[in-house]
Write a structure and sequence with these properties.
Helices cover 40% and strands 19% of the residues. The protein is α/β, with parallel strands linked by helices. Strand 4 and strand 5 form a beta hairpin. The structure holds adenosine-5'-diphosphate and magnesium ion (MG). Magnesium ion (MG) binds next to loops. Magnesium ion binds next to loops. Keywords: ATP-binding, DNA damage, DNA repair, DNA-binding, Helicase, Hydrolase, Nucleotide-binding. It holds the Pfam family RecG_dom3_C. InterPro entries: DEAD/DEAH_box_helicase_dom, Helicase_ATP-bd, Helicase_C-like, NA-bd_OB-fold, P-loop_NTPase, RecG/Mfd, RecG_dom3_C, RecG_wedge. This is Probable DNA 3'-5' helicase RecG.
Length: 672
């Protein structure tokens, strides 16, 4: 029933590609919602106002030129008329489309209107069937899996799937939501934008509700009595601290005191450490680990990416070794044999501290006596993962760290006031970061600027939203910018993204660190915690794709050393609302202020970990209402939990069912 292969035209190859973007069954497919829409209902005419806009035009073909060839490339020019205005249609490296036009016939074309030498033209415009002059959803694609495929599969799926209701009728009525089925239908087959907005609202509300509700349901914020007592040996602590290359700042010292108090108390610790990018959170986690290890218990230090956790492991293993502690590293790409050894060592109490990615949540990673878990960049993890840890030890002491400041409205709901510690300021001081917002017409100038930066011996990050080039996406990719950048500048550049092997990733980072004036072209994997002091320039493509908090994180990769640093945000000149949002980035480097703005503009998805893709939807109107929606969800949760804390009442059965289901969602997906 729910099997992907039942869909016409969907073979094992496409299924594998779908799996790689997290789609394992029909329901997942239905939930793969568009990130944006093309409005093809309006037909435009060429005018100066429309230059550089991507629009739909109706043209009449007046002449079809011969194809010319040059260095293995080809180019065909057609001349057309639209409202008596001449538009040239230029096709590069596409000999098929030009030949499909008939002289004198009319066509609907879609493309970016350009104007040069007193002439309008379109580069590689797409032909649109008259039947498709409507609102067309845009999906994230992948090499081998294009818009058309995804759309076709989804539409087919919509026709034969039962989508059960995931909200109690009381809440559906309260907000006048549409049914679950209608909601998804409106997103994939929209008649108008009002319905799209309505549907997005429901999905956002649901995400907030379930996130907050599971938090309360699993009782993460309430006090639990613990049996394993931890005695902090102050003398040993002093020796440990004297082995650091620096003295803790007074704020770090204060946070450490909070932690010591927690460790020594009779209740399990559940502490949030907030501190802006570069405020020095990691060492606090390491010290806490040391204290717990010295009391004879085990620790796990968890980070969201392999790159980050490997960096932590490499940075701190020698320090721990000085105190006779052997560190272990477990990630998705740890060899099977090594994995087995680590797991055995954990069980036999030989391995006491594990640095790990999500791998640590797996059931067969069992510790001898795990008493402390540290989750770095906690917003990258969901409630479910926390539950997995608590499963390992219900009395576990938990430290979560976040550089995306959590606005007070939210943090007070998730943690108790006394469980929040803040590291203020920066131990090394921070160099000023200048932020510049530019459209793509400045790309070459930006490249020149990078060359200049390299000549001075400083390092540059270039950040892209996708890895591969894809035909039908207007996102820039690591591959395409790599080609463009290296051929234009003649400079060498290193590449980093999630699909590389662990070795390749390490090499890229090592090379980037080692070489003077190096350039790293990367996806947002560098966002979390990568610490390279000589990096003084970061260029972010498609910056409209990210939330402000995420941009703040990315920007925090520079300004860590001695040099004054620059952040360049690139975006399409047509993205007017996004330009406005970027003003906030330009005018502030205060993480809390930016986070508060982000919450107002986009709701708490990034902070709660409900926006796992990290990708910003371009439908800005909706985001404006997210904060209100969140506030409503919060109040609903308060009411539900105070009335029925274990969700035992019949009216709450859907809620409970969804929470339980979501706790092991990956596992269930593979069963279906
Ligand atoms: P973040 O809070 O972003 O995770 P890190 O823990 O990566 O910050 O720390 C940033 C840098 O500051 C690291 O290189 C770390 O070694 C250094 N650092 C941390 N605390 C101090 C300190 N008290 N004095 C000097 N340097 C410090
Ligand atoms: Mg960090």
């Amino acid at each position: 029933m729910n099997n992907l292969q039942e869909i016409k035209g969907l073979g094992p190859k496409k299924e594998k590609l779908l799996n790689s973007i997290g789609i394992y069954n029909k329901l997942d497919l239905i939930k793969y919602i568009p990130f944006d829409y093309l409005d093809l209902r309006k037909i435009y005419t060429p005018s100066t106002q429309n230059i550089d806009s991507t629009i739909c035009l109706k043209v009449k073909i007046m002449s079809i030129g011969k194809t010319s060839f040059f260095k293995g490339k080809n180019r065909t020019k057609l001349v057309s008329l639209c409202d008596d205005i001449q538009i040239d249609l230029i096709y590069f490296n596409d000999r098929f489309t030009p030949r499909s036009f008939v002289l004198g016939e009319e066509y609907y074309l879609y493309g970016k209107l350009k104007f040069n030498n007193n002439r309008y033209f379109l580069n590689n415009p797409k032909k649109i069937e008259e039947a498709n002059l409507k609102i067309i959803p845009k999906y994230r694609t992948k090499k081998g899996l294009n818009q058309k495929d995804i759309y076709k599969f989804i539409i087919e799926c919509l026709n034969d799937i039962d989508i059960s209701e995931s909200l109690p009728s009381k809440l559906i009525k309260k907000y006048n939501f549409q049914s679950n089925y209608e909601t998804y239908k409106n997103l994939h087959l929209p008649d108008n934008f009002e319905n799209i907005i309505k549907s997005r609202k429901r999905l956002n509300y649901e995400a907030y509700l379930y996130n907050l509700l599971s938090y309360k349901y699993f009782n993460f914020s309430s006090k639990k009595i613990k049996n394993s007592l931890i005695n902090v040996d102050k003398k040993k602590l002093k020796v440990f601290l004297s082995n650091l290359e620096f003295n803790l700042t007074k704020y770090q010292q204060k946070v450490l005191n909070d932690i010591i108090k927690d460790l020594e108390s009779n209740f399990s610790m559940n502490r949030l450490i907030q501190g802006d990018v570069g405020s020095g959170k990691t060492i606090i986690g390491i010290i806490a680990s040391y204290l717990v290890l010295e009391s004879g218990f085990d620790c796990v230090f968890i980070g969201p990416t392999e790159t980050l956790i490997t960096q932590h492991y490499n940075n701190y293993k020698n320090l721990l070794k000085k105190f006779g502690i052997e560190s272990y590293l477990l990630t998705g790409s740890t060899a099977l044999k090594e994995k087995k050894l680590i797991k055995n060592n954990l069980l036999s109490n030989k391995a006491k501290i594990l640095f790990s990615t999500h791998a640590a949540f797996e059931e067969d990673v069992a510790f001898y006596n795990l008493q402390l878990a540290i989750i770095d960049e906690q917003h990258k993890f969901g409630v479910r993962q926390r539950a997995k840890l608590i499963e390992k030890n219900p009395e576990l002491n938990l430290i979560v760290m976040s550089a995306t400041p959590i606005p007070r409205t939210l943090s007070l709901f998730l943690f108790n006031e006394e469980n929040i510690s803040v590291i203020e300021g920066f131990p090394l001081g921070r160099k000023k970061i200048n932020t510049i917002v530019l459209d793509y017409s400045y790309e070459k100038k930006v490249f020149d600027f990078i060359v200049n930066n390299s000549k001075k011996g400083n390092k540059t990050y270039i950040v892209l939203p996708s890895i591969d080039e894809s035909d039908d996406s207007d996102l820039n990719s690591v591959q395409s910018i790599y080609k463009k950048f290296t051929s234009y500048t003649g400079l060498e550049a290193f590449i980093l993204h999630g699909k590389l092997s662990a070795d390749e990733k390490n090499n890229a980072i090592e090379n980037f660190k080692k070489k003077n004036g190096s350039v790293l072209i990367s996806t947002t994997v560098i966002e979390v915690g990568i610490d390279v002091k000589e990096a003084s320039l970061i260029v972010i493509y498609n910056s409209e794709m990210y939330g402000l908090a995420q941009l703040h994180q990315l920007r925090g990769r520079v300004g860590r050393g001695k040099v004054e640093s620059t952040c360049i945000l690139l975006l399409d000149r047509n993205k007017k609302t996004a330009f406005k949002r970027m003003e906030i980035m330009k005018n502030s480097t205060d993480g809390f202020y930016i986070a508060e703005k982000d919450l107002q503009l986009r709701g708490p998805g990034d902070i709660l970990g409900t926006n796992q893709s990290g990708i910003q939807s371009e439908i800005d109107i909706i985001s404006m209402e997210n904060n209100k929606l969140f506030e409503e969800a919060r109040q609903d949760v308060d009411k539900i939990i105070s009335d029925d804390p274990r969700l035992e009442k019949e009216e709450n059965s859907i809620l409970k069912g969804e929470i339980i289901k979501s706790m092991d969602v990956d596992f269930l997906k593979r069963l279906n």
